[in-house]
Specification:
Length: 249
Amino acid sequence: MTYKVGIDIGSTATKACVLDGENAAFTLVIPTGFSSVEAGRQVLAALADAGFPQEECRFCATGYGRVAVPFAEKTVTEITCHGKGAARLFGPDGVVVDIGGQDTKAIVLRGGKVVDFRMNDKCSAGTGKFLEIMANRMGLTQDEMSALARTGKPTTISSMCTVFAESEVISLIGQGTPREDISWGVVESVASKVSPLVPQVAGAAYFLTGGLCENEYLIERLSAQLGTSVQTCAQARFAGALGAALSLE
């Protein structure tokens, strides 16, 4: 038996997806940590523990640290892999939104192929890392922050740079602004910065991939900003890794 394994080493999390034929037999997510090379080694060890030894696998790497996977026979860009993974999960046509730790991507699919894409600037506040930093600043988890945001009042956080936006949050904390109001501003800031990046394609379905696919409140606010429902599922977190595995012929 030869398994196809996609490894997506992101700036925050490393994901893996094992394909047994056409079916996903195993998925894994671990923190990337300081070293992408070490993250790759940890994936190998975890796969072996799960019954997928290296000698029975073929590997394709994608993501921020894809060049740090020496045992991968192939490397493929994140755009291509998220497109392939999303097409398998949701269908061949639509617009894929991937809010990563370091950047955000919007990918237009037609017939399962990438026909257009856009990426934000790496310093933009519209990323998962921004949510993580702001939640930490308030002593919250991201889930706790999103839950609080539901009950918050409109509060503006306008900076495009994460560092300056964090200064805004610190100022709001100093002014005694309730955490639920700051949380509202943080989530709304991400949704409002992601939405202009996303192409408006008439009649298209919209899909969210990546680590925020289970953040229900962010999905609601992004849907509101785009004026259409954004679809996702728990497996969408592994879209990049799935697409990498599918790239192995």
